[in-house]
Amino acid sequence: MMPGARLTRYQQLAEDLADGIRAGALRPGERLPSVRQTCAQRGVSPSTVFQAYGQLELQGLVEARARSGFFVRATRRAPRAEPQVAPPRAEATPVAVSELVFELLGSTRDADVVPLGSAFPAAHLFPFDTLARSGARAMRRLPSSRITGALTAGDEGLRQALRRRYALHGVPLADDELIVTNGAMEALNLCLQAVTQPGDVVVVESPTFYAALHALERLHLQAVEVATDPRDGVDLDALAALLARQPVAACWFMPSFQNPLGALMPPERKQALVALLARHRVPLIEDDVYGELHAGARRPPPAKAFDREGGVLHCSSFSKCLAPGYRVGWAAAGRFAPAVERLKMMSSLATALPPQLAVADYLAQGGYDRHLRRLREALATQQQHALRLVERHFPGGTRVTRPLGGYFLWLELPPQVDALALHHRAMAESISTAPGVLFSADRRFTHHLRLNVGHPGDARFDGALRRLGELAHGA
Amino acid sequence: MMPGARLTRYQQLAEDLADGIRAGALRPGERLPSVRQTCAQRGVSPSTVFQAYGQLELQGLVEARARSGFFVRATRRAPRAEPQVAPPRAEATPVAVSELVFELLGSTRDADVVPLGSAFPAAHLFPFDTLARSGARAMRRLPSSRITGALTAGDEGLRQALRRRYALHGVPLADDELIVTNGAMEALNLCLQAVTQPGDVVVVESPTFYAALHALERLHLQAVEVATDPRDGVDLDALAALLARQPVAACWFMPSFQNPLGALMPPERKQALVALLARHRVPLIEDDVYGELHAGARRPPPAKAFDREGGVLHCSSFSKCLAPGYRVGWAAAGRFAPAVERLKMMSSLATALPPQLAVADYLAQGGYDRHLRRLREALATQQQHALRLVERHFPGGTRVTRPLGGYFLWLELPPQVDALALHHRAMAESISTAPGVLFSADRRFTHHLRLNVGHPGDARFDGALRRLGELAHGA
Q1: Residue B95: which pLDDT band, with cuts at 50, 70 and 90?
Q2: What is the Cα–Cα distance from B310 to B284, expressed in whole angstroms?
């Protein structure tokens, strides 16, 4: 099983240093002990020290200066607070957000627009050439009878590679529960349909990813929102109260690096979530598409790691971490796998083979983990950079998340700011955003924004973020 | 627009000769006049004569003998009659056939089984190597920003190529109505959902393709079946009566080479169908996946060719004619295109790019029509061969279709034969079939079979077809 709640060495070291900074023992502008010194003092390896310092940088407590080491950050004011938890209404809401989302997303397709509202990281972060070569090689090697006989559940080689990878991360999957899909989006939709009937109530987070609201709308389901903490994720007490009060067909949550908050449920809270839902026999649809994009040293365990009864329908894809545009996703659907496979067969028969084989061949070549390390590092560095820009350019009173993974920031602007109006003003200057109203069935989060910070080294993005901050001052 | 009801020269010539054969003017074993003689007599070109003779061969009236010419077929008995039209029940039926279909299809996945029940032609008929090369070339050429920015409606280059091809066939499509999908299956499902609400009534053919029944079941819709003639397709009088009697949300038909019958609605009947539905404001979901697999000289016009009001949601794919396993399909969804695009975005976001680009590059290379000619010829030849085997080995009283395209035969066995039991007996000998009960919401067609004859030159298929006929004798 995956690591539990105990802190690793580097986490412990980072915590200790953070305590020192907060207590004033290490003061703004002061240099942290050198890596060598700290190794000697604490009896740890240099890589542990590097990880700890990186973690502190990620938290905005220290900054690296070229050839000089790490320094406690000299901020004139305290770092931005994180957004507040906003308890949602308890009633079920029929969902109809798609009009608004389509209008907004449609307006951001223009290549001249700086896509701060986009859902994907920068294209240059992905190994498209290698994937193309892998695809051609694998397709030419495959006997043509295996192409015409492609199975609904997906290419067996890819499924084996996925099962192996999960097993290495401590998540053993059953042989038949894995179904390859047209991206995570199809996986999530199929899983949702497999466990619901029209009219059923489904619990989502607040705020929640708009695609979850779309899926509910398309399947004529009702949403109940449960509060989600920007750091720790789903409020388990609120969820327990909700489950005691009314029948619920399913939960659709993102326990790791939630979109839009970036919240990461600690392992013990994931475990408690799975146990709570198992007691109520309520299936959990787990969207884990950002799980590989952790800024910390280890991949956080998915909720699926704690699933003993096949009640977790775990969905993910390669679209955010390796191969956007390839639409290779999957569901590990537990005891619902046969139902999901049937729905897949009924609705799209099978997933395209060329992208599956391209990814399977790429994985077999062995460069995936190296690619992921580079990608994570680039995203974490850019997040720090973007946080500094937010701090500098957005109005006082702006709160912002500091996620431990993914590539989104969630901003809570001062209450008087109308984020939708701000979005329109920014669009007039060719800057898109994802305003908060997209992330709730009842159009809450009126002064919130989700910003994509997955474009490292892109001066256009920096300029757009700065300009957005200026616009927010006048809003 | 596409050619109307008037016979072309070769069709007229074929009709005249067929009349002569039926009237006894040309007798079994007799040689048809040579091509040169006929050219001189009728004042037509050699290619017209070849097409006419080919048509007669397809109808089972003559046979080609190597280096000797065409001969009227010497059958000891009259050729098999075609299956009868069976008027379906008029009431709407909630659909629940999927259990049976999954059980049957699941049992036919074994590579050791001869797949007479399969839905795909032989793998060796497709240019997989060329497609793989096309895919790699196209993916390497595409700027990576166009990969991460892949659109829900599909790659613009592929959409242009499709529009051009339709225009060449006399079917102008509107700029924005074309949406690329994960195979025709997804296109059909999205179109069906775009025009229905749970509980609605949808008209399907009788017999109908089981995937249509699946789609209805998945969307909680009700089916009303309308009789379909094995030659001419949907019974328009029955449909008109039905539309006058009850509210209908949509029709889902295959006007060209219907699965399982192979029926081809003549152009004037397609036109009448579109007009009838337009009067009732009922959308037509047109499944045209076999349209390119015509045995005659020209591609039959789809119903979409007669659509003036955007009421035809035309769906097709490359899965049966070029690239099985690539899952590149599309919908030309008329006035429902925006709704279909939104549903696509909500349920699977976008179609995988590598297969789209592979097909677009392949089309740009210019070999598609040559490939199609070879494929059609191989399928038509094999159909003749399979018809002879059916005639020779199946029980007296067996009726069989002689479709003008596609690669299915539909057999009506003597009424006492239980086709499902026959299927199970055949499966015990590693031969799959598609028994008739799969093709109806209320499990009619108990003594019918759909057989795949898309495996030219495969002795295993010939042997299996012969053996199936022997088993039918004892059933």
Answers
A1: low
A2: 10
| Chain A residues with CB-CB distance to B324 below 8 A | 147-148, 150
The answer to whether B211 and B188 are in contact (CB under 8 A) is: yes
State the pTM of this model: 0.85
CA distance B28 to chain A (A): 41
* Record: contact B147-A123, CB cut-off 8 A: yes
Distance CA A316, CA B428 (A): 40
Report phi then psi at B247, rounded to 5: -70, 140
Cross-chain residue pair A183–B350, CB shorter than 8 Å: yes
CA dihedral A282, A288, A289, A292 (to 10 degrees): -170
For residues B268 and B237, the answer to whether their CB atoms sit within 8 Å is no
Phi-psi label, residue A327: left if phi above 0, alpha if psi -120 to 50, beta otherwise: left
> What is the number of CB-based contacts under 8 A between chain A and chain B?
196
Neighbouring-strand partners of residue B201: B222
Distance of CA A287 to the CA centre of its chain: 8
Q: How far is B469 from chain A (nearest CA, A)?
A: 26
Domains present along chain B, CATH in parentheses: 9-72 (1.10.10.10), 95-124+373-474 (3.90.1150.10), 127-368 (3.40.640.10)
- Give which of B126, B353, B407, B458 to mutate to test A binding, by max A Cβ within 10 Å: B353
* Substitution target from A124, A200, A348 for chain B, most B beta carbons within 10 A: A348
Q: How many residues appear in chain A?
A: 475
pLDDT at A96: 62
Cβ A334 vs Cβ A307: under 8 Å: yes
pLDDT tens track for A298-336: 899 999 999 999 999 999 999 999 999 999 999 999 999
Closest Cα partner for A190 from A64, A330, A308, A70?
A: A330
**What does DSSP assign to residue A182?**
E
Using the beta-carbon criterion (under 8 Å), do A354 and B349 form an inter-chain contact?
A: no
From the list A173, A212, A174, the residue with the least C-alpha distance to A192 is A212
Burial of A427 (0-12, 13-18, 19+ CB in 10 A): middle
Dihedral (C-alpha) B397, B402, B406, B411: value to the nearest 10 degrees?
-10
A64 exposure class (CB count in 10 Å sphere: 0-12, 13-18, 19+)? middle
Q: Determine, for residues B147 and A136 on separate chains, whether the beta-carbon distance falls below 8 Å.
A: no
Q: Do A348 and B144 touch (CB under 8 A)?
A: no
Helices (H), B228-367: 236-245, 267-280, 337-348, 353-365
ipTM entry: 0.84
Record: contact B349-A183, CB cut-off 8 A: yes
Is pLDDT above 70 for A98?
Answer: no
Letter string b/e over residues B349-358, b meaning 16 or more CB atoms within 10 A of that residue's CB: bbbbbbbbbb
Which of B150, B215, B354 has its CB closest to that of A354? B354
Where helices occur in A349-396 by DSSP H, the ranges are: 353-365, 368-393
Contact B123 A182 (CB under 8 A): no
* Closest residue, chain B, to A344 (C-alpha): B186
Q: Considering only the beta carbons, identify the residue of A129, A182, A351 that sits closest to B140.
A: A129
pLDDT of residue A184: 98
Q: Which of B128, B193, B343 sits opposite A144 (nearest CB)?
A: B128
Residues of B in contact with A211 (CB under 8 A): 346, 349
The separation between CA A116 and the C-alpha centre of its own chain, rounded to angstroms, equals 16
